[in-house]
Amino acid sequence: MNNLSPGSDSLLVPSQAVREPGDAPSPPLPAHLEQLADRARGYVEAASSANTRRAYASDWKHFSAWCRRQGLEVLPPSAQTVGLYITACASGTATADHQPNSVATIERRLSALTWTYAQRGTPLDRADRHIATVLAGIRNTHAAPPRQKEAVLPEDVIAMLETLDRGTLRGLRDRAMLLIGFAGALRRSEIVGLDVDRDDTEDGRGWVEILDKGMIVTLRGKTGWREVEIGRGSSDATCPVIALQTWLKLAKIGHGPLFRRVIGQGKDVGPDRLTDRQVARLVKCAALAAGVRGDLPEGEREEKFAGHSLRAGLASSAEVDERYVQKQLGHASAEMTRRYQRRRDRFRVNLTKAAGL
Length: 357
Description:
The protein contains 15 helices and six strands. It folds into two domains: 14-142, Tyrosine recombinase, N-terminal domain (DNA polymerase, domain 1, Orthogonal Bundle), CATH 1.10.150.130; 154-338, Orthogonal Bundle (hpI Integrase, Chain A), CATH 1.10.443.10. 46% of the residues lie in helices and 9% in strands. The protein has 357 residues and is an alpha+beta fold. The longest helix has 21 residues, at 50-70. Helix 3 (79-91) packs parallel to helix 5, helix 6 (154-161) crosses helix 10 and helix 7 packs across helix 12. Mean pLDDT is 85; it is low at 1-24. Keywords: DNA recombination, DNA-binding, Plasmid.
């Protein structure tokens, strides 16, 4: 049984391929190509984010374990086996806890299998009726409205900033992250992936350039590089540029990761960049401390906020032409941008009255 981890196998690196019993062994690479093979493995990893690779590896492990319990083989790929697997996921029989997976989880698991099989050079046909028809039935039967994170609006962000201690490095760092994340409509991975300058680190996902009227954030995304413009705020207390400059100055950061761990009882800054989970934790804790959506029960409030709340907040509150919001979020379509618009006046355009009723 194969427990192939995505990213560990590639046609580009046959000497490292994970093989099944009975597979013909691949000829070893000549010594002068080993360095090129190492570079190829790096490109394979760069083709997807670390979070995606972790999720895909977990999904492959889940599928492999299910096949092992059913006495089925994972190779060669079988559309019928995969169809039975996603059926088990939807019905709650794929694992011992009998918890059915959501449609979104099932679709991600299927993407993981497709990706992993492709990496082995043994493609899985998702259009096969054993998969496509079953998946369509699962969507029709179990699909539910998406559970979106709550948007934090400008007044919420201001209240959240007041919960942070301006006299500590941690407080200054968190202020800068909240303001840049909101004003730039950045994903949590984009926030923590920023460096001070271009090419500072190998794992950096972008960098910042501070100008007179604001800052330019250059980001590496799924479809290439893009630039996000963040203007200066209407006051120093809510200006993302000033917040970032203050953090960099007092944390004595001139090179490398922009947002780092605070160590030494809060008096020093370490070399390691923060993880995206810490952004989600910051947004949740600050929103709860500020009493955002205090009209909701405590348990429900805890599930409402995460890193995406900043991104949705800008999309919901910026009173500008929609195309500018779409550009800031890096969306290919206006429809995708509208999905991010939460707590706003949805009836600013009243088609009922416009039609004469």
